[in-house]
Amino acid sequence: MAEVVTQVEKLKNYINGEWVESKATQFEDVYDPAKKEVIAQVPISTKEEVDHAIEVAAQAFESWKAVPVQKRARILFNFQQLLQKNKDELARIITIENGKNLTEALGEVGRGIENVEFAAGAPTLMMGDSLATIAADVEITNYRYPIGVVGGITPFNFPMMVPCWMFPMAIAVGNTFVLKPSERTPLLANRLAELFEEAGLPKGVFNIVHGAHDVVNGLLDHPEVKGISFVGSQPVGEYVYKRGSEKLKRVQALTGAKNHSVVLNDADLELAVTNVFASAFGSAGERCMACSVVTVEEGIADAFLDKLVEKAKTVKIGHGLDEEVFLGPVIREQNQQRTLGYIQKGVEEGAKLVCDGRNNAPEKGYFVGPTIFDEVTTDMSIWKDEIFAPVLSIVRVKNLKEAVETANQSPFANGACLYTSNASAIRYFRENIDAGMLGINLGVPAPMAFFPFSGWKSSFYGTLPANGKDSVEFYTRKKVVTANYKAPSFD
Ligand code: NAD
């Protein structure tokens, strides 16, 4: 933890529609990772502060749940307009606090806006079902209701899109919300709160408490919190899922990944290289859908690798606000050092380092250049662990069956991609690969807001994924009314 300094802004919490100075005694530095410069300080708020925010949200729930759904949706429409109007500013904040380039940041803002657009459809999405006659004069109707206060815990790598997977829909269907953003990228969330307030959201419906473990535990333990949406790493997700479930809440935890792409001999080579490259090294590999292993059929492996390495060697690395930059920094020095450690381990474990990203990046920020290993095997750490950095492993295989069997050895199963021109291979891949989100001849198969988003195996804990109709299911509960309307007598 850093000493409190006065030159940079100390971020405030947002509780009951007010910007509140935290009572925290600890503050953490927030960096522009491309410059290693401190740009703000985030409070590591206390359990008492999150408890207070939850109580405020519980009180706000009593009136918010009674607001007609179309009126709630209108506020979402206003919010959407304000996000559109301010999208360039939002993207700049993301680039500065996260490091991804401005084009990627704008893409992220667009994805977040799509979630708000989807949530604005709440009147239709909340409709229940009914049957007019299930016995003489008896009918049955299923109504949806919000669940109460929802807690959101989010990672550093998508400061806008991931919170937008959660709070717009949760709030549109009548819940109130307490968000704990990542302490490494906390700035964007505060801007979202300002814009949501400007859109007409009543006080107490959306709250932000900055911090770390204590705030997370506060959300997990408080009996007024009825649902937890978590996105982050596997160990933390497992902890959140277990502790939240023990406290009898519904929990969805989207966790870590090690995404495999398979390139077959009959793939369009240019397309495969372009997409794998963007997917492996875009956002400095800090994407839960980043490609981190490519399993290549032997017949195309040399040509594929040559082109990939050639491309990697010409990439421009630097500050994401520079329009020519493709690759920004990783988020912190610790992540940079951890990545360099993995590269060293890869060499020691016998993989062939064909593109070394250790020394080709600017010194000023937390950079690691694109790194590619060939001849990787499944017993190596670089194959097994989520590195979450621009490090790509190549595995050579005889055929698709071997590729799928290899990929399925991973405990993670978030996304997987296949490059081929063979329909039978596509079907085989779809039926046999372990992953929740598949891409065919494209790089980052992150589903749109109106489709479910989650992995399988250790990449997801829970029953209902984020987004799509599943998010409506997660953020609502049902009441089924069976009613006997005795037929009137007309005698
Ligand atoms: P992280 O797990 O370190 O942090 C996520 C959140 O949990 C943060 O808000 C953090 O403050 C909190 N947290 C961290 N340690 C905690 C602890 N010990 N107890 C309680 N709370 C704790 O994740 P990150 O480094 O911010 O994000 C990167 C990870 O997120 C990667 O593993 C990536 O794959 C994953 N991710 C997954 C998805 C998905 O959809 N599956 C999407 C984005 C990111």
TrEMBL record:
Span of domain Aldehyde dehydrogenase: 19-481
Top-level taxon in the UniProt lineage: Bacteria
Pathway terms, separated by semicolons: Polyol metabolism; myo-inositol degradation into acetyl-CoA; acetyl-CoA from myo-inositol: step 7/7
The keyword NAD appears for this protein: yes
GO biological process: inositol catabolic process; L-valine catabolic process; thymine catabolic process
Active-site residues (renumbered): 288
EC class name: oxidoreductase
SUPFAM superfamilies (alphabetical): ALDH-like
Keyword NAD attached: yes
Reactions listed under catalytic activity: 3-oxopropanoate + NAD(+) + CoA + H2O = hydrogencarbonate + acetyl-CoA + NADH + H(+); 2-methyl-3-oxopropanoate + NAD(+) + CoA + H2O = propanoyl-CoA + hydrogencarbonate + NADH + H(+)
Residues bound to NAD(+): 156, 180, 183-184, 255, 386
CDD domains (alphabetical): ALDH_F6_MMSDH (cd07085)
One MF annotation (Gene Ontology) recorded for this entry: malonate-semialdehyde dehydrogenase (acetylating) activity
Family assignment from sequence similarity: Belongs to the aldehyde dehydrogenase family. IolA subfamily.
Record's subunit section: Homotetramer.
Protein name per UniProt: Malonate-semialdehyde dehydrogenase
Organism the protein comes from: Fictibacillus solisalsi
Gene: iolA
